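Data availability (excerpt). The following record was deposited with the supplementary files.
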Amino acid sequence: MNEKSLKKALLIIGAALMVLVCLFPFVWMIIISFTKDATFLGSPYVRFEFTLDNYRTVLSDPTLHFLDYFRNSIVIATIVTITTVMTSALGAYAVSRINFRGRLVVPIFVLGVSMFPQISLVGYLFKFIEKLGWINTYKALFFPYVAWTLPLALWMLLSYFSQLPKDLDEAAMIDGASRIQTLYKVILPLSAPALFSTALLVFIAAFNEFMFALLFTTDYRARTVPVGIALFQGVHGEVPWGNIMAASAISTIPLVILALIFQRYIVSGLTAGAIKGE
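Predicted structure:
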């Protein structure tokens, strides 16, 4: 085997190992979700005994409230995604296209604010939300989630908008379009890959967020999936691994399907800012 073939073989082996490592938690989750807890916990070795009881329990047990948690997560993540992408698009367009004092400082300031850990903010944020009477409401999660995901969305769209030729804006405005019309009729249609990838990443971040949801919601009518699944143990008095894995699978599979459907847009959107246009 020559050196070139050896390098190719090592790359293939490395890629295969990386795929296996990444897929193992997901595959393990699926296996346990279809296995009885007694079979799984009663032996040092996993004995697969197929059952749908875990999924039936998760979807039908009224004490778990899983469907309420799932609905809350979908609604909150969707609203947060729409708001964040629209707001970040306006901000990214302004910074990349309009010359104003301090425009280069804005993204740095936004990024700096996002570096504060959540734990350093939740105390005062909880008191503020409590005074507003927002505990156990969607608003208690909506505003923190938007603030938390906005820096990521702004930076992603800014890198993409910056590579688009400014001649597009000038041509649109010569034809009588305003700044807003130029953004929505010219820039955003050309930025579909970046918008798709940004929206999906924001949706996943909002859907999976745990700390804010844990502290700002105590009622099942406002709790989200991550907190609800974490509290399954308290409902049954022991760790119901089968139910936890079944609930996790139901919550994860839609995100995986979305990622697969929009894979082409995600890859092109994430790599768009790597090469800057003229």
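Summary of structural features: The radius of gyration is 23 Å.
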